[in-house]
Amino acid sequence: MKYLFSFGQFLFKFLSIFFFFTLCVFSDAVHLKNGKVYRGKVREIYEDRVILAEASGVRTFKRSSILKVIYLAKEKVFLSMGNKAFSKDRFREALVYYEKGLKVNPSSSEIKDAILKVRGVLFHRREDFKKKQNKGRSKDFPSSGKNKLVRHDSLKDTWGITLEKKGFDFKIGEVLPESPASNAYLLPNDLIIKVNDQTLKGKLKQNIYDFFQEKSVENLKILINRKIVILRGKKSFYQSDWAFIDAKAKPSDRGFIVDFVKKDGRADMAGLREGDLIVSIDSYQTSSMSMDLFEKKIKGEQGSRLNLRILREVLMEL
């Protein structure tokens, strides 16, 4: 009986050590700034938070409290998020997550299959969308000045957007999923500055639809003004101030052109892209701003918001 009890103690200790070793080696880990470490499976990754599943439940950690995250298989997280979006028919969002996962692990056949699947769905939905809009295009876009009241709905049915007047500018009110506007990554509240190099500012709303209604138009070059909010990160003393946002920009006569965005960094997660023209930073215009002043405005406490206004040119295709 004594030996049996000793063997039971040994087995318990062995299994405990084995379980602890397995948990440490074969799990994700969230390291907080206060020294605590939480282990489990990272379910979702966002700009402002990380969601971790533990045996006892699910925890949500703010990015501002996290020192670092160690992943066992980061691509699996993006695959899971993509599958979740796919199951809810958010196919373009799913594709974004799958592509992020493929960047982490380019050899993942599972992610490659998922990308092929979602691209197939997007292709067929786009073809159905084009058939629908081509079927009703002639009646939706009268060549005369009559029936101007239907133009708003026609713009929505054809390009997949609605427009709203905002002062002298026009902003996007709604973007239909799987539409030309959605495929061009246009977002609600984007300001449309130019259409095919023609400025919209100050024009009457009813005249704006003339830019979109020509039957021969198959694509539109759109210049948008978009607000982007980046949560500042932490930088080491030897890093430049650009480390606060994980991106860099160079001066131009119109502002600052983004020429580097760190993959999966804070700027990337916020939607900043290389080639974007930063025209304002925290409401200050950048056209005549020096590089020193621009870098000073990037500085800030970890987790604080940096508000940018950018210009971006996109192509919207039928």
Structural overview:
It is a single chain. α2 runs antiparallel to α3, α2 runs parallel beside α4 and α3 runs antiparallel to α4 (109-135). The chain starts with a helix and ends with a strand. Helices cover 36% and strands 31% of the residues. Strands 6, 7, 8, 9, 10, 11, 12, 13, 14 and 15 form a 10-stranded antiparallel sheet that branches. A 5-stranded antiparallel sheet has the order 4-3-2-1-5, with helices on one face. Among the domains are: 136-217, Pdz3 Domain; 225-317, PDZ domain (Pdz3 Domain, Roll), CATH 2.30.42.10. The protein has helices at residues 2-25, 74-87, 91-104, 109-135, 137-140, 151-159, 180-183, 205-208, 266-270, 291-298, and strands at 28-32, 37-45, 49-54, 57-62, 66-70, 161-166, 169-175, 191-195, 198-199, 219-231, 247-252, 255-261, 277-281, 284-285, 305-317. It is built from 10 helices and 15 strands.
Oligomeric state of the chains in view = single chain
Total number of helical segments?
Answer: 10
Radius of gyration: 25 Å
Distance between termini?
80 Å
Which percent band covers the strand fraction?
25-35%
The biggest sheet amounts to: 10 strands, antiparallel
Coarse structural class? alpha+beta
CATH T-level topology of the domain at 225-317: Pdz3 Domain
- Secondary-structure element pattern, one letter each: HEEEEEHHHHHEEHEEHEEEHEEHE
The total count of strands amounts to 15
